[in-house]
Structure formats: C-alpha cells, structure tokens
C-alpha cells in the first residue's frame, strides 16, 4: 500500500511539473479534464453523475472553461461570467420543476455546488499561471497546500495534544494546524529567496510569507470540508482513480480552496 501510494505520488508530481511549467493549452486541458472527473466524483455521492442535474453541471463547466480560456481577449468578461452563473441556476431550477418530483432539493443544490466547488475553484490554477509572473506564483498553490499538510502532520505527531475537529478528523490537532500555517509561511519565504536567486523573479519575501500563511490556513479548511462531505455520506474515498490516494477530490481537496486565495492575494499584493 505504501509503495503504491509513493509511486502514485511521484507520478502526480511529474504531471504537475510538466503541466505547470508548460502552462498554456496543456495546463488548461489538464485542469479541464481533472475538473470534469472531480465533478463526476462529487455528483456520484449524490446519485446525479449520469442524470439531468449532473449533465447540466458538466455542460456549464464546459461553457465556463471556454470563457476562462478566451477571457484575455474578451472585453469586460465579468458580465459574461455572471450571465453564465445565472443561466446555470435557471437551468437547474427548470430541471427540478419539469422533472418534479424526480430529484430532491439537495441533489439540485449539489449540482450547483459541485460546479463552483470543483470546476470554478480549480480553474484558478490556470488563471494564476497566466498572471504576470505566474510562472513563479502558481507554485504557491501547491507549496501552501501540500507544504502545510506535511508540516501540520510532522508538528502534530511531535507535540499535538489539542484536537482541532475531534468528531471530523480525530488525528488533526490545533498544534499541528498552527505548525502547518507557520511551515507554509516559512516555505513561502524559502521559495521567494530561491526564485529571486536562481530565477531573478524579484519576489517580495514578506508578501510570499503572508501568501504562504493565508494559503496554508485556507488549505486546512478545504481538507476538513472534503472530509465532512465524506463523513456525512459515509464514504471513505471519492474515487479510485489515483491508487493509494483515492479520487481527484481526495488528492486535490486542499488545492481546491487554496487556488482562488493564491490568485486574489497575488493580484492584491
């Protein structure tokens, strides 16, 4: 089991390296496929992965990614995105009305939620990559989430005593959570120093520390949120696509929350 998990992890790192360094259409296509798979995993929990609410979700995810891809050349895309979101909501209400009482309210809401939770939030990895200096900034998404997770685990094992969420995740501790945030901030500092020295990035060490800490804190919320959904529906993993890790949502649960935060912090700071 450990060997399988390790090999899968190495493969994921290689894929991340290739797609993030390449950027452009390769990264866009990879995220698009990952988003659809992730949505399918979540929709399966609610029994709508091949039914009308799920199909509508996939369709609007395709339209959304089309807008994201052409965003740099479209004038004032804010209205287009808002129009898409409202159209999706109206479509979902129409599905509920004209198929009544086939689908429960929570299934309709899950389809709407899954679109934002997976497709929209993951797309910010691509949107961060195409920012000025995004070739460096985009790595913070993974540094914050996976770096925080590693640091939190190590600190929790060493000095963790107070449970963070005892009913949801008994192994996570407050000390581990704080250690994860501090560790992500420290990794952010080291990363800034590295890209300044070897890449001539001119990154602000203080800003990268702030982004690292904020991203690390949010990543833990993402991890626990994904666990909460699984607990409520009594499932261990969202899928079996990645041997030893589970599904897309099991591996990218913290990244999903971190990506938009990194994007907006990069823009603001």
From TrEMBL:
Membrane topology of this protein: Multi-pass membrane protein
Swiss-Prot/TrEMBL catalytic activity: a 1,2-diacyl-sn-glycero-3-phosphate + CTP + H(+) = a CDP-1,2-diacyl-sn-glycerol + diphosphate
Biological or metabolic pathway of the protein: Lipid metabolism; Phospholipid metabolism; CDP-diacylglycerol biosynthesis; CDP-diacylglycerol from sn-glycerol 3-phosphate: step 3/3
Molecular function terms, GO-annotated: nucleotidyltransferase activity
Keywords assigned by UniProt, alphabetized: Cell membrane, Lipid biosynthesis, Lipid metabolism, Membrane, Nucleotidyltransferase, Phospholipid biosynthesis, Phospholipid metabolism, Transferase, Transmembrane, Transmembrane helix
Coiled coil ranges: none
Enzyme class: transferase
Name this protein carries in UniProt: Phosphatidate cytidylyltransferase
Species this chain originates from: Faecalicatena faecalis
């Amino acid at each position: 089991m450990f060997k399988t998990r390790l090999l899968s992890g190495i493969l994921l790192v290689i894929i991340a390296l290739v797609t993030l360094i390449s950027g452009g259409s390769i990264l866009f296509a990879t995220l698009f496929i990952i988003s659809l798979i992730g949505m399918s995993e979540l929709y399966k929990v609610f029994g709508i992965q091949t039914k009308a609410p799920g199909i509508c979700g996939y369709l609007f995810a395709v339209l959304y990614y089309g807008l994201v891809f052409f965003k740099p050349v479209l004038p004032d895309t804010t209205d287009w995105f808002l129009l898409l979101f409202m159209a999706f909501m109206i479509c979902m209400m129409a599905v509920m009305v004209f198929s009544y009482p086939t689908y429960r309210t929570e299934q309709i809401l899950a389809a709407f939620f899954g679109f934002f939770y997976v497709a929209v939030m993951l797309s910010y990895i691509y949107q961060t990559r195409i920012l000025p200096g995004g070739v460096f900034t985009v790595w913070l998404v993974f540094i914050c989430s996976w770096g925080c997770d590693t640091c939190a685990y190590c600190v929790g094992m060493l000095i963790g005593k107070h449970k963070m969420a005892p009913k949801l995740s008994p192994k996570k501790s407050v000390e581990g959570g704080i250690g994860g945030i501090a560790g992500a901030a420290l990794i952010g500092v080291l990363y800034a120093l590295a890209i300044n020295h070897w890449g001539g990035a001119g990154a602000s060490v203080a800003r990268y520390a702030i982004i690292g800490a904020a991203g690390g804190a949010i990543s833990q919320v993402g991890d626990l949120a994904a666990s909460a959904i699984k607990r409520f529906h009594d499932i261990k993993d969202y899928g079996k696509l990645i041997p030893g890790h589970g599904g897309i949502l099991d591996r990218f649960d913290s990244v999903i929350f971190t990506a938009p935060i990194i994007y907006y912090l990069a823009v603001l700071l």
